[in-house]
Write a structure and sequence with these properties.
The longest helix is centred in the middle third of the chain and has 25 residues. β5 and β6 form a beta hairpin. This protein has a 9-stranded mixed beta sheet with strand order 1-2-4-3-7-8-11-12-13, sandwiched between helices. α1 runs antiparallel to α5, α2 runs antiparallel to α3 and α8 crosses α10. The two termini are about 30 Å apart. The chain contains 17 helices and 13 strands. It is of the alpha/beta class. Helices cover about 40% and strands about 15% of the residues. The chain is globular and about 85 Å long.
């Protein structure tokens, strides 16, 4: 996608040549140059259908519209064959600002140009639709399968473990598509899904995208920004976690079906073929935001180990738990002998009750029945975030008995464990790590390093019962200097405890 820089620079060149007439008198009589801002605007507009929504190009688009608008008097004079008096139509604001704004808006578009294509992977990926009849919802599956690009299961290799990856609500499958491909290359059969009306956007079997309505997008933002502060926003977050939990339960039940249907060509048969080279009794679950929180809640249920024996471990990426937060107790007016004071206390108590109810602390956290890996922003190393956003995660880390590990990449923000740094680098500026300046770095933590963390964690868990056997997954070494690691006491029992 780096070729997007070419049309961006072309549009900037057209505008620069047109603006040069302000400073070079000999060019002012070349009336044909007045068409260049319109041509540049056409090039900028064409970027969006050609490359999709590009946030870094929005300022350039607004700038191009302004240039074309201010240039309209000159164009009108040319089209009506009236005498063109040069740039007298341009006001002082245009002459003072437009030449100096070109460089920053063009530089923004070029500097934050995407590193990788935003189009979804196709080779070796199977898409299908499955239907949850109990809830009346359909799930769009993408299976980054166990077979090669020719559709054959590799011979002489052990079956691949399955990794079910629950995408972030904002960004959904397009935000983890490259990551899923990296995990497949590392030795997993990766299963991702999205759900229409719930994920933003849901991705259909032919790659069609179903955006979330604005009111539901507002709900996501409210749960993310205020879910740890107010009860009303927290209830939204709870409902999102509950929906994710039900999705996961349905998916696990569906993947547990081992007998392929007789009728070939049906969705179930397509999925069975895609999972042909997979080790169904070996499953890892990974989830972002509400998905990761739902995994922790599900794995903490009393019958989880008995109900889902195939699940060997969980990976929660930037997944603070909202459902374990508790609201503050409303104040009760103390009794008082003076009737006027008692009346005033009751009035004040009722007035306080009308204010938005707030969150006061953490209740009982789940204790997962399988090993857990938390992957977090390096904000988790700062005390103010450890006591706020990551407080629930740290409580799970230190209270559960199963092996649990926390990893935070230096300089990584909440979005960096996805495809976002490669596909939409500008977004990292708005969700930086502990140091804002590092969000401008081009060598960001991205899907390759995230896949390495997930793979090395799963490899460490599988090593518990794999003494003397060939490794299923390809461990990917990472530099210890670039990561902050925390573990609980249970993690020390692992034979190969490092995930770096």
């Amino acid at each position: 996608m780096q070729e997007i820089i070419i049309p961006e620079l072309t549009a900037g060149f057209f505008i620069a040549v047109s603006l040069s007439r302000l400073f070079i008198r000999k060019l002012r009589n070349l009336e044909g140059l007045a068409w260049l801002p319109v041509l540049a605007l056409g090039v900028i507009i064409a970027l969006f259908p050609a490359y999709g929504f590009r946030p870094e190009c929005i300022p350039l688009l607004i700038y191009g519209i302004a240039c074309a608008f201010f240039n309209m008097p000159v164009l009108v004079s040319l089209l009506t064959r009236s005498r063109n008096t040069g740039f007298k139509e341009h006001g002082p604001v245009f002459q003072a600002l437009m030449p100096f704004l070109l460089l920053p808006v063009l530089g923004l578009a070029v500097f934050f140009a995407p590193v990788s294509d935003s189009a979804l992977l196709e080779a070796g990926v199977t898409s299908a639709v499955i239907w949850d009849e109990e809830r009346g919802v359909e799930l769009f599956l993408r299976i980054y399968g166990a077979y090669d690009d020719e559709g054959n299961v590799p011979q002489g290799k052990r079956q691949k473990p399955i990794l079910v990856l629950i995408p972030p609500l904002n960004g959904s499958v397009p935000a983890i598509d490259v990551l899923c491909g990296k995990l497949r290359d590392a030795g997993f059969t990766t299963v991702a899904y999205s759900r229409r009306g719930f994920d933003s956007p849901a991705v259909g079997p032919r790659g069609e995208k179903y955006p979330l309505p604005p009111n539901r997008r507002a709900r996501l933002f409210r749960a993310e920004s205020r879910g740890r502060a107010t009860v009303a926003s927290n209830e939204i977050g709870r409902s999102l976690e509950e929906e994710r939990r039900r999705d996961i339960q349905f998916l696990l039940g569906f993947l547990r079906q081992n007998t392929p249907p007789a009728a070939s060509g049906t969705p179930d048969a397509v999925i069975a073929d895609a999972l042909a080279g997979s080790d169904r009794p070996t499953v890892f679950l990974a989830g972002y935001d509400a998905g990761g929180a739902a995994l922790l809640e599900l794995a903490g249920s009393p019958d989880f180990a008995a109900q889902y024996p195939a699940v060997k471990g969980l990976i929660a990426v930037e997944s603070p738990l909202l459902s374990v937060l508790r609201e503050e107790t409303p104040p009760v007016p103390p009794p008082h002998d003076n009737r006027f004071i008692a009346l005033w206390l009751r009035i004040r108590s009722r007035a306080v009750a009308l204010l938005p109810r707030r969150i006061s602390g953490i209740g009982e956290v789940p204790h997962p029945a399988v090993p857990v890996c938390f992957i977090l922003s390096d904000r988790a190393m700062e005390s103010r975030h450890r006591n706020d956003r990551y407080a629930t995660i740290l409580k799970v880390l230190h209270s559960t008995k199963m092996p649990t590990i926390l990893a935070a990449a230096a300089g990584a923000g909440p979005l960096d464990y996805s495809d976002i740094p490669e596909k939409y680098p500008l977004y990292r500026v708005f969700r930086p790590g502990s140091k804002w300046s590092q969000s401008l770095s081009r060598g960001a933590h991205g899907p390759e390093e995230t896949a390495a963390l997930m793979t090395n964690f799963a490899s460490a868990i599988l090593a518990l019962g794999a003494e003397g056997t060939a490794p299923v997954l390809s461990r990917i070494p990472l530099s210890p200097q670039n990561f902050h690691i925390e573990t609980n006491n249970g993690w020390n029992s692992l034979k190969k405890g490092s995930i770096l």
